[in-house]
Design goal:
The structure holds 2 protein chains of 2 kinds. By secondary structure, chain A is α/β, with parallel strands linked by helices. Chain A folds into 2 domains: about 1-185, Rossmann fold, CATH 3.40.50.970; about 195-325, Rossmann fold (3-Layer(aba) Sandwich). In chain A, about 40% of the residues lie in helices and about 20% in strands. Chain A contains 12 helices and 14 strands. In chain A, the strands form 3 sheets. Chain A has a 7-stranded mixed sheet, with helices on both faces. By secondary structure, chain B is an alpha/beta fold. Chain B has 2 domains: about 10-330, Thiamin diphosphate (ThDP)-binding fold, Pyr/PP domains (Rossmann fold); about 330-364. In chain B, helix 6 links the parallel strand 3 (about 160-165) and strand 4 (about 185-190). In chain B, helix 1 (about 35-60) crosses helix 12, helix 2 packs parallel to helix 9 (about 230-245) and helix 5 packs parallel to helix 6. Classes of the chains: A alpha/beta, B alpha/beta. Chains A and B meet through helix 3, helix 11 and helix 12 of A and helix 13 of B.
Chain lengths: ~325, ~375
Amino acid sequence: MDRINMVQSLNMTLHNIMEADEKVLIMGEDVGLNGGVFRVTDGLYQKFGRQRVIDSPIAESAILGTAIGMAISGLKPVIEMQFSGFSYLMMHQLEGNASRMRTRSRGQFTVPLVIRMPYGGGVRALEHHSESKEVYFAHTAGVKVIIPSSPSNAGPLLMAAIDDPDPVVFMEPKRSYRSFKEPVEDKLPIIPIGRAHILEKGDDITIISWGAMIQDTIKAVKRLKTETGCNPEVIDLLTISPMDIETIIDSVIKTGRCVIVQEAQKSFGPASEIIALINDHALMYLEAPVNRITMYDIPVPLFGREQMYIPSQERILRAMIKTLNE
Amino acid sequence: MTLHTLDTFSIDYLQILDEKGNVDKSLEPDISSEDLLKLHYYMTFSRMVDSRMLNLQRQGRLGTLPAATGQEASFCAPVLAIKDTDWFVGSYRELGGRLMRGEPLLNILHFYNGFEEGSLNLKSPRTLPVSIILASQLPHAVGLAYGSRLQGEKDTVALAVFGDGSTSEGDFHEALNFAGVLNAPVIFLCQNNQFAISTPRKLQTKSATIAQKAIAYGMPGIQVDGNDPLAVYKAVDDAVKRARENKGPSLIEAVTYRMLMHTTADDPTRYRDDAQVESWKVKDPLKRFFKYLTGKQIWDEKKQIDLEKELKQTIDQTVKEFESKKEFKPDAPFDHVFGNSFYLIDQQRAQFLDQLKIESEKGD
């Protein structure tokens, strides 16, 4: 069992899957010879050739549109949007076609494909390279949205996404790409789509997060335990849509308190949805209002000020203490 | 029943000043000495700024930035052919062109150090900010050109600059189509630098030239030696004249080469040979323009040394100024979200500032 980072975990998974299933195909900008700008597809072009690893022209709409055709034809395309900030150009193919081909054709035509994209801030990049817009995709019925948070869950979730019968948007938190390593087995277990992962079991407060914020949340939780001696339950969503209602509700019914940590801007985000679910199913169990720590409702600042705006450990910790004391 | 040819097309290639510095006198554009020296000044300035910024980036004093070296003729000469009252709608690899348009170097440094303040460009109100999403700026150029005309400006044009990779995006095709249909006075200038990050031009399109894409949209297209400032100027000047006379848009493909990396986050050795890079060194636009100017006896070695010294001082001074002001108002990102105020945003700004205060007190 080697200790590897998230990029290596994703890369290893793609190598394994392409080896095992010749219907899997990679397409995107700079994914071939260059191995992707983050090297997630490194070595695939050399091993599987340019028929199955396509360096495409720069046209996000056509990358998805073509992949929809490939998927209907029987292939399993895994396409890459170079950055989530450039993915909006494929939006009409996602909303208009990929998401509803199954519905439109009453199940005759299906679109099993994966759209990978790095997202999120914290890597000192230029404009359009720092946003967390998972909600754009999650708001599209018929599309599943997955966000891994670590080397050990990135590969298994990608396997599940490729195995899935429908379009999956697979958002990779680029801040976590190389920031830490974990021991990962060669033969990865599949993590099912639609299930959140309980990172820590506890009774006093439910902490929910996903993506790169998981690392900050874990550190804040550690400090919370030291400072208050409380026993928090920490949930890593993993699947944004369809959301794992059971895990969230069971936990909140148990703890009566909840804090959500979200990198995306505040309004209309996944945190809003979680609060609505709690309202639907667990309102009477609450002992304090549900709190959410998020970005503000502004475009993500350029990197000069970005760190001030992404939820900090300090902010997360204070929110948890406040919710515990209410 | 009949089978006959409806149309055929041809595409011209223009080179006036070759890589050895020879001029085709029959094609030489009429540019004043003052303007020639201005062009030379900015091409030199651009090269030196690019090199300094890459150094600053390597030292961690700037963030990720695109390299512009080698393409100076492609992005400076077009600016010489338009007026301050015309629109400049660029992408992100036209450093010297932006300097020529009056963007202060200080702003450019702040922008690449991650501060929005660098994008405010009061000195050049008709230069749009850097546009990173490829080809997305091209329809804007059509709208600006059309809008200015509709509002009574008789001869305003828009110069839209983009790269070879952008020609694959839908926005490129849609913009050219709109410009044709609306007869908008736009000059579409493609800097074909052979690479979109790692993807070579031949994988971007099966067309033999990018220039010929103009034909499909009902406008003239021409390919020029993009490292020849005279050819680029001549082609843009012709297109500007057409546009001013209400004869519609044009497409120009300037064939050049990205001598360095896509951005500082890129490693070109993964996908291209050094030999290819070497073969483009002899085509350097600065070298051949120097020969041209000295041949015309309006420039010499001594003047060149003095100019480089002067520019180095200017850059040194600006970098010093840049380094002395690295902090801006922390809540500035809230300032321009909307043009009017809303409780929701104001409340979030107040929360942000409270937060900052608590964290700075904890830090003390």
